[in-house]
User: What shape does this take?
Amino acid sequence: MEITCAMPIDLRRGLTGLVLAASVTALVGCGTVFHPERKGQVSGRIDPVVAIANGVGLLFFIVPGVIAYAVDFSNGTIYLPSGHTSAGVDALKLEENMDVASLEKLLSDKSGKPVRLDDELLRVEEVASLDEALALVRMAGIDDAERLARGADDA
Assistant: This one.
């Protein structure tokens, strides 16, 4: 006994590709793909675009949609940016022959706080890109206590 499919081969290939693309996108988490710069957020308002895109995964199959939500919640990429951060990365133009006192003054003016480059709590790193600088700020855990406190208040 032979079973045949009455669906044209082009339509079947198109649907297979669509289901495969939707499953892969859902499995990696839409927020992680669309907004990788949001990784590390603990809480905030949920981005409706990311939530709806993850929900599309639920339409195809339950498992990819649930995985997409789990990935985005665990990465923090489902949340909208809060607009309030006390740690960040600013790019400043530096003169080539700038001395330590001038750099301390520039940083003090920019931050609004006194800066001493010989402070043991200060970490100076040379980075190749802005993405690497942002990753260092996130890994430093500077805002962790504040983010966790805001997350408890939101609940």
The first helix runs from residue 9 to 28. The chain has two domains: 9-75, 100-154. Residues 100-154 form one domain. Helices lie at 9-28, 30-34, 48-60, 62-75, 100-111, 130-140, 144-154.
